[in-house]
């Protein structure tokens, strides 16, 4: 009995499975078929010549512990249609297992990588992406609510997990993960791939807005300009990949006050006062009156993302509010009702809340924007930075 070696080679080419794996799978399938055909022994092993395709069957006698005590050649006399069909089924099963193992081996180390695929299946809870040689799933929790997924559309996604399951290898991807934006910048900006420009911070509300802080190790390279590209070509490509999500690129600074001011871009900042001893550390930001709504952003989004990016709790006031509070403090100080740090003088019966104008908004790195309830003495010089 012989098999066509060229046919096995074609399986290797079509499936991308190693030739030795294909031959070994066929040997196992023929051994299973031999046993089902009622051969001379209950066990057998099959050897296929890798050159001419000759099939040799060795019947085996085993002891109670499963060890081979005797082996002899038993030429197959009748591999009929049923036996051949059994061999084919076993072979296809083993080839599928080999494909799954190969897919797992290819993707198991790729958590954190960017992949591109075509939408094949889309319902309310699940999107399936065809990656070419594998399929990936986009669970509902990893989908951007503002995006509409259509059959046949191409998407880039971020691999968050590769795992084995009963149905085979499962590649779990995300469109909401902040690192998706980071991976897109690394793909579009050569200076990031080369390590000249680095991403020092990123805060994202998927589908709406992302803030990303960048720095350069080469003084001759402008990190923001490198990420934006000529006429915005690089960042526009990323925005398109993100379905129109806004992206603010800001220069990173090791100086917290400058970093906070940059993070509130596109708003202009007049002054920043730092209170690092607070928990969490707080930055009081003063902005021109006409910049207040821009600094806060729609539903507090700009301030919220700036707080997450920098790790500082951000109080925002406009210049008029700040001036009114300063005047109220100065008057109370001159009357002897408060000390130089704004603390009430015992017996004067003054409450700081009576002379304070509440900040416009407070943004906490881990919370939504809320109306401030406490008064802060902006004239206190501790931690002050312009």
Summary keywords:
about 375 residues, OB fold (Dihydrolipoamide Acetyltransferase, E2P), GMP Synthetase, Chain A, domain 3, five-stranded mixed barrel, five-stranded mixed β-sheet, about 25% strand, elongated
- In terms of per-residue confidence, which ranges show pLDDT below 50 for 5 or more consecutive residues? 368-386
Helix content: 25-40%
Just name the CATH architecture of the largest domain.
2-Layer Sandwich
Q: Pairing-aware structural class of the strands and helices? A: alpha+beta
Element order: H for helix, E for strand: HHEEEHEEEEEHHEEHHEHEEHHEHEE
Main sheet strand line-up: 4-5-6-8-7
> Radius of gyration in whole Å, from Cα?
34 Å
Number of domains: 4
Reading off the top of the CATH hierarchy, the class of the largest domain is best stated as Alpha Beta
Which sheet architecture does the biggest sheet show?
A: 5 strands, mixed, barrel
